[in-house]
Amino acid sequence: MATFELYRRSSIGMCLTETLDEMVSNGTLSPDLAIQVLVQFDKSMTEALETQVKSKVTVKGHLHTYRFCDNVWTFILQDATFKNEERQDQVGRVKIVACDSKLLTQ
Amino acid sequence: MARNVSSVYIHVVDDVISKVRDEFINFGVGENVLTELQTLWEMKMMQCGAISGAIERPPPAQKPSGPITPVHDLNVPYEGPAEEYETPTAEMLFPPTPLQTPIQTPLPGTDQSMYNIPTGPSDYAPSPITDIRNGVDLKAGRPSPYMQPPSPWTSQRPLGVDVNVAYEEGRDEVDRGASDQPMTQDFFTISSGKRKRDDYASQLTSGGYMPQQDGSGDVMIEFLLPEYQPKEVQKSMTGRDRETAVKILSKKETEAAPVLPQQDGVNDEYDDLFHFQGNEDYNTPAEHVELRAATPAVGTPKPAKNEAAEDDEPPLNEDDDDDEDLDDLENGEEELNTQHLVLAQFDKVTRTKSRWKCILKDGIMHLNGRDILFNKATGEFEF
Questions:
Q1: Which of A97, B281, B356, B374 is the most interior residue, by most CB within 10 Å?
Q2: Does domain A6-51 fall into CATH 3.30.365.10?
Q3: Where this protein primarily resides, as one coarse class (chain B) (predicted)?
């Protein structure tokens, strides 16, 4: 089953990737096993986001760039505002990367 | 149920660890490696602030036993030897280096023997030089400073890039039986940590550490480690290699000698003659004085340069786009990769004239240095 690898770019994903890198460089772990860990991370992260998170966010901003390639939307926003129930964040520039949710359920 | 970010992350960590445990067992890798993975991962997350310092896990409902049936752990938070992973363990591991972890944790000694296998001497390169270096590596714990290549294992490791041609030829002897799969062979033996270090060393160092199979190592070894006579190297050379080694020896002598006086390029007086200033080297020195005195702003000195230097040529207009979005975008893109980022899945993206609307789900946002998770997001952007 294919997984979305995009969550590997998050903080938690990068920490895992770095840890696996170190362990493979040490020879502690084989690359095959490390890749399996990453694939499992993809699945676990996706599932956790579906089941454990319930918050809703609204985004507004100026769209500087949009790109749709290989079923992935990439937006670059300027002066964006992110609102959720608890707080509101303003950022000067933000990149949004979004994969097609239908691809997983096919 | 609503959980905060840290608890979701910890849940993910637990979930991943429990689900890869079987894989680790299938690969024959010990439990302590899994433990090390988890601990290192959590440590890094604490360092970058993804999770808060206190790792709270629900107290284990069952006594930690050896064979934990994975089926029970699927929907229940990881309840194995959780006590060992509490903050004290992370602190305990903080000062010592990761490689020393399996030695220090109070895990059964049976796993120690499994872990010792990778670090045992391999028969591939019996050079004592490598033994010493590996010993140093083990004790230092950190990967050697020259083992820096980023994730080489995710792509096929480019052993063929090795500049030492003779090294490759020497290896042919070893790989004769599997001549079409030297890469795979290395992956299989990757648990033999010593061999891997040899391979890295061959790529990255030009010093005398290499366990070379050929004669060219004579020069370097003699130069740096006088006590190791050429016979040390010849021991690992075969008859076939000697001829090629002799040829390469003369070539390598000139190439690999560490102290080669350079007459050109770096240390000559060319710079003084022409007052180089980065990429402005085609202008006269007088204008460089202007540039040096100019403010740090990139755009400021350029109009002055244009007027003076382009009188007899049609203006190239090369600076027209300099301060526009192009530069900002490039710089911004680099910054974006490290700053604000949203990773999600999209349900729908629509546009009406210049008004974009999108519906996203299951996303991780990293904004202003903090992580925010969402189940659903709606966006309205104006292009």
A1: B374
A2: no
A3: nucleus
